[in-house]
């Protein structure tokens, strides 16, 4: 059977998030249960960079590989998530909204969560020094496939430059805000100098996956360790396909028609 590579997508680990943000904030105890389950199953943790390097080289990916990623760059990653990962020897890839470093989650105003604190530059540097892979997540978290191409290019390219200025090292991976992307945005990501990009797709990645639209499975607040185990082994998630679903393209057109309205309310 072809290998499945689960890439998990978290946003926040917080016991007391704003009410309307609750679905995306996994509690600390639940997160600990997730990580303990990964250890019990003998899962081998990789970063996105490690995974894509193996795939590009044609080298085998560990049979029980798992990749833990976090989007957005909330400050609770440093206080609530990373200590738990570090204690279990699990790596992580953290995608940071570069234009909001040291600020707040402004794009979440429509769901009443615009006040969530973001990591500051010192925290990001310290996390990188401790082994966290830092990736870019745009400057301001827009829907890149529904904004003008000029703005999309700036969001993609400037976030790389901003984070590299903080870290004094290359930033090689990007994650599409909201998971939204199209052929042109993927091309922009490559032209900006990134070697990989993470989408969402809520499916299992694999060695033949698109390295500029890696499939990830979103982990929500109500996801138990038992359910997550079923995601890992393919019972609760399908293998990612190479082609975009028709409904994805249709939804993109709807969003473009709504581009003059406030951005989507999803983290």
From TrEMBL:
- Top-rank taxon of the source lineage equals Bacteria
Q: Which GO terms describe its molecular function?
A: hydrolase activity, acting on carbon-nitrogen (but not peptide) bonds
Which residues lie in coiled coils?
none
User: What biological-process terms (Gene Ontology) are attached?
Assistant: carbohydrate metabolic process
Q: Identify the main location.
A: secreted
The UniProt keywords, alphabetically, are: Signal
* SUPFAM superfamilies per record: Glycoside hydrolase/deacetylase
Task: List the Gene3D superfamilies hit by this protein, alphabetically.
Answer: Glycoside hydrolase/deacetylase
Q: Where in the cell is it found?
A: Secreted
Which PROSITE patterns does the protein's record reference?
A: NODB
Which Pfam family would be a valid example here? Polysacc_deac_1
Query: Which GO cellular component terms are attached?
Result: extracellular region
Q: What is this protein's record name?
A: Polysaccharide deacetylase
What species does this protein belong to? Arthrobacter livingstonensis
């Amino acid at each position: 059977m072809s290998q499945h590579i689960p890439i998990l997508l978290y946003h926040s680990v917080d016991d007391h998030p704003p009410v309307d943000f609750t679905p995306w904030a996994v509690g600390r105890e639940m997160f600990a249960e997730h990580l303990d389950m990964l250890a019990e199953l003998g899962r081998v943790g990789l970063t996105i960079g490690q995974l894509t390097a193996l795939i590009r080289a044609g080298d085998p990916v560990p049979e029980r590989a798992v990749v833990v990623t976090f989007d957005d760059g909330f400050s609770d990653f440093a206080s609530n998530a990373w200590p738990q990962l570090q204690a279990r020897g699990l790596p992580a890839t953290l995608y940071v909204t570069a234009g909001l470093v040291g600020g707040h989650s402004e794009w979440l105003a429509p769901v009443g969560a615009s006040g969530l604190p973001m990591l500051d530059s010192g925290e990001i540097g310290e996390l990188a020094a401790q082994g966290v892979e830092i990736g870019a997540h745009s400057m301001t978290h827009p829907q890149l496939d529904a904004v003008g191409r000029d703005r999309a290019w700036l969001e993609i390219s400037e976030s790389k430059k901003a984070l590299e200025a903080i870290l004094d090292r290359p930033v090689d991976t990007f994650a599409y805000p909201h998971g939204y992307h199209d052929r042109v945005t993927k091309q922009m990501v490559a032209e900006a100098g990134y070697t990989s990009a993470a989408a969402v797709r809520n499916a299992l990645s694999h060695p033949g996956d698109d390295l500029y639209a890696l499939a990830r499975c979103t982990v929500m607040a109500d996801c138990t360790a038992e359910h997550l185990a079923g995601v890992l082994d393919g019972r609760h998630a399908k293998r990612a396909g190479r082609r975009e679903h028709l409904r994805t393209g249709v939804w993109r057109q709807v969003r473009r028609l709504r581009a003059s309205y406030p951005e989507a309310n999803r983290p």
